[in-house]
Amino acid sequence: MSDNNLDQVALGRVGMMRQTHPDYYVMRLKAVGGDLTARQLARIAEVAERYGRGEVHLSTRQGVEIHYVHRDNLETAKMELADAGVEMGACGPRVRSIVACPGNATCRLGVIDTKAMSRELDARYFRKEMPSKFKLAVTGCSSNCTKANENDIGVRGAIEPRWEADSCTDCGLCVSFCPVNAISRQDTDESSNYVVDETACINCTVCTSLCPTSAWVVGRKGYTVLIGGTMGRIPRFASVLKRIVESEQEVYALVDAAVECYRERGIKKERFGHMIDRIGLKKIKEEIFVKAAVQRIEIH
Amino acid sequence: MSKQQYSVSKSIDVRGVSCPLNAVRAKQAIAALGEDELIEVTVDAGESLIRIVRSINDAGYRIINSKQLENAVAIIVGKGKAAVRQ
User: Would the CB atoms of B57 and A170 count as touching at under 8 Å?
Assistant: First the structure.
């Protein structure tokens, strides 16, 4: 049986890709947020030794790929992996593995629970058919380790700082350490006030975590939702859909609406960001907000 | 928010010293301070400043003032009663 007799689209759906070598395939495995257990890793190693060449490739989407698997062994290898809870990834025009940083589970800078959110996004969207490939990323804070703005949809932990005069000793350090110079000191006749320029603020946690007297506190905390990022042949940085979304449910409503919008309006093989450029960011944002509002009304 | 009166008895300049050595040197100098002494630590602006401030806060020392210089910041730090605010 030649490779032409195999359904390549069906294989791609479950993360199996033809290699340059006839009859050999890549098995792309899923690791939501880059997480695998030691037992799963051990099983991946066993399968790679038994059916591959005893080596793995680490993908850019935090997954593991086993290369050089003969087509006759694909099903068996897949079952042995599934037995240890290792699922297949995805190729082609559909939602790919969700990537995430460790978030506030272990990172001192993390603002949000990236692991819970990436698992939820995985449950909702993984392998969903789309006009082109579709990538989602969750990153815990403005350090942006998971590069949320290179993904079709990115969710980034965000805070809005608030200055509390009573705790401030006017040391001026915040003006110096703010990474984007968004904080300034404004003097009046009676006192000195510290103010943050909200248009310049990147919603990171530098001021709230470093102020020696905790005069900068977290005012609002939530998620920045970004849309339309992509690297690839025609890179495009993501656009901000909403700067601070305070509830997790609203994040899902916005993501649902963005996914629906792209599925309705996207042309085959056109990435989400390029669709946004074709139609116009303002118009797409409006459409997404309307869809998300309708959805939230339906839920309540 | 009244400014506290203080006098600085020591100083260390860690400009140009890479992380984490700049923080290590600064913390060594702070550790050697007496209870009533303050030190002026001069550090490069940007990531170095952020790392040093985090390191000083984590160690339990107190930053009581700062001064912006060209591409650098001078911070006043103490560890004992000299750094306790009124």
Answer: no
C-alpha R_g of chain B = 12
Burial category of A143 from C-beta neighbours within 10 Å (exposed 0-12, middle 13-18, buried 19 and up)? middle
CATH of domain A159-220: 3.30.70.20
What is the SS3 assignment for B49?
A: helix
CB pairs < 8 Å spanning A and B = 48
Pick the CATH number of A99-158+223-299 from 3.20.20.10, 3.30.413.10, 3.10.300.10, 3.40.50.300: 3.30.413.10
Write the CATH number of the domain with boundaries B11-83. Answer: 3.30.110.40
Domain boundaries, given as residue ranges, for chain B: 11-83
pTM: 0.88
- Chain B residue numbers touching A193 (CB-CB < 8 A): none
Q: Which residues from B are below 8 Å from A209, CB to CB?
A: 54
Q: Which residues of B touch A191 (CB under 8 A)?
A: 1
Q: pLDDT (tens digit, 9 = 90+) per residue, B17-72?
A: 999 999 999 999 999 999 889 999 999 999 999 999 999 999 999 999 999 999 99
